[in-house]
Each structure stands twice: as structure tokens, then as C-alpha cells.
């Protein structure tokens, strides 16, 4: 299911033309991203199918890599705080605030007193992690018809994500009379990618995806798209048929789509 539980506006610095990653003097400053507001290129104008797919990849892949870069920066800081916590060191106020902001961002509950616990850190480590680029590209290609679908063109939605407030998106033509969902509209394709990554990292429907990813890390193995895709059986009513179609896409474009995030951390 393409449920969109919430979308948060991020301030992240992306290494795209005109933007670059910058670090703060404060070690516990939350890494962020400055999202490009450009609209989708017109992938079909006078292009062959292979050229369209190549342009789609060249457009989306740098954005995915930079978003993963920022997520992994957050993960590094989270691990640093957890090491201090497990070592019985007293966390600074800045470190505690960082973990609490991360918990809010990734929907990990903290008690009313705001106390941190071993379980909070473990839940965050399951969620604050990168998404294999080839999996992102496969889902985007599948859900948006390589950036040419109605929802991609009119709503900047590359992943078929749903919303449930009237007027929040585009009503699907085939929606049943008793259904209330719409296909979410985004201000830019970049916002669609942010929401998709947050969805996979927080939605209860994808807990299996996160468990597979975590287990691979614990075993020191590569977190590849083809290894974690089975955790997305709930993304579509097609179930394993959907998973098989994503796997086929990743196999077809294995020479063009990176199979794992550019930075590996346990």
C-alpha cells in the first residue's frame, strides 16, 4: 500500500548544481537538504525509449544519492550518541536534543518525560538508514511509467503515494465509489522522493523491509535493492507479483543503477 502517513519539510543541502553539502560547527546539528524545486523534464519529447529511460536515471539518481548521504550522516551521529549512551557517558544537552528530534522525525515514541532508552536507540537504528538506489529507481520507474504518468506529470508523484484529505491530491480515474484516497500532489519531484523514503523508513507496513536491511547490516553484508525488495510485498495489492516486477527492473538495469548506497555503515 502506498500510504503516506506524514510528510515533513526538510532543510537538506543537496549536491546538485548550485547546491552543496555543508557541515555545521555544532557536531550535533541536524544534517539537512535544500530540495530543488524544478519540475520533471519532459521525458517523452522526441526521444527513443532507451533515451527516455537514460534521462530519467540521470535526473533521479543524483537526488537519491544525496538524500541517502544525508540520512547516513544522521545515522553516524545517532550511532555516536548510542555509543556514548551504552558506555554510560552522560550525553550533552545537544546530543539528547538531536536524538529527540530524530525520534520525532522517524516516528519513534518518547515518554512524556523525554527520557531516552536503549529501545529508542534500537528503533531509530532500524529506521534511520539509506534506501538502495536501484530499489528507489525501480519503484519510481514502475509507479510513474518512467516519469510520464498522469500523477507524475500533474502531481510530481513518482511513487504512487496516497493521501486521505479531500483535495490533497489527484483522484484516480479507477477509484471505487466508497474509496476516499487521492494520489498525493507534491510541490516538486524531490519532495516526492523525500516522502517516499520517509514512508519506507517509518510505515508499519514496511517493518519487514527494515528488518531485512538491519539483519544484513548486522551480518556485515551489502544492503542491496535485490536483497531487501521482498520487504515491500505490502506496497502493492499485487503482492509478490509487484516484488517480482521490481526485481526484474533491477536485474535489467544492473549496469546503470547502483545496487547499494554509496556509503556503507553498520
Automatic annotation (TrEMBL):
This is Bax protein. GO terms for molecular function: amidase activity. Pfam families: Glucosaminidase (PF01832). The lineage of its organism: Bacteria, Pseudomonadati, Pseudomonadota, Gammaproteobacteria, Celerinatantimonadaceae. It comes from Celerinatantimonas diazotrophica. Gene3D superfamilies: 1.10.530.10. Coiled coil: none annotated. Residues 107-243 form the Mannosyl-glycoprotein endo-beta-N-acetylglucosamidase-like domain.
